[in-house]
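Intended use. Records such as the Nitroreductase domain-containing protein entry shown here are meant for training and evaluating sequence-to-structure methods. They are not intended to support clinical decisions.
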Amino acid sequence: MEFDHVLSVRCSVRRYTEEPVSEEDIQKIVKAGEEVPVGHFDFKNYAIAAITDKKVLRLLAEENQALSGRGDPIYGAPLLLLIMNTPEAREDSIKLNAGIMAENMHLKAVDLGLGSICIYSFIRTLNREEGYGKYFQALHLPEGLKPAMAVAVGHTPMVQRERRFVARIPTFRIDGKE
């Protein structure tokens, strides 16, 4: 898919089918997350977990519902890509680095014809819990990792539609010319 087309059809998808994401597509999406430039070359302090275990995803939805009163934060997507950092990651760049990783994975999912959504709300909610919630403990990840951002991915009944560009953010050109 052409890059400009990917940008024009990119949207946050909140409806998924139960069809699993192929292992090949998971690998491509994770690779997109790994290909980011990380500030201060701090790659060793980040990790990505690709979660397809239905029990863990259900536990995440139940915990989020109990704590926030809101429903499933990943909208039933069959794949959750959890971006994590170690305690040694530079605090001032964690959200920036994780956000760039998430956007790369989000764009790759669109390129593959999949629906996706970048998510932070459940992380903010569950970070208040001891150990970042039972869902996180169920992952059995190495000690010290902390969730920073996530991307939910799956097949969707929604059709990718190109949006007409509408400038919504003020931009300024400073070029020194009079």
